[in-house]
Amino acid sequence: MANREELDSSDAVVLTHALEKLRARDGLVLERLQTTTRKSDVAPLLRLPLVQNFAALQDIDPALAALQVVAQCVRDTTDGTHQIVADAILGLGVLEDAYSLYGLDNRVTQALRADSLGRRRSTLLRNWRTLHLAMGLPTHHAPSDRTLRGTLETEVLRQLARQLLNPGDQQIVVPTIADAAKTSRNAQLSPAGRVIVIGGAVMDVIFRTNVIPQHETSTRADQCLMTPGGKGVSQAVAAARLGLRVSLIAALGDDSFGQEIVEYLRTENVDTSLLKIVRGARTPVTGVFELPLGDSIAAFWRNDKVISLGVRDVDLLGHQISDCDTVLLSFEIPRETFQRAVDLAHPDSQQRPTVIVTPGQPYSDGLVSRQALSQIDFLVAHTWEIARYGSQGHDRFDPHRIGEDLLRLGVGTVCLLGNGGGLIYSRITPDIQRLPTVSSPFKESSITRDAFCAALAAKLIDEGELSEKVAAWTTAAMACAAEDHKHSTTMPDRERIERKLRNHNTR
Question: How far is the C-alpha of 431 from the C-alpha of 424, rounded, in Å?
Answer without folding.
Answer: 9
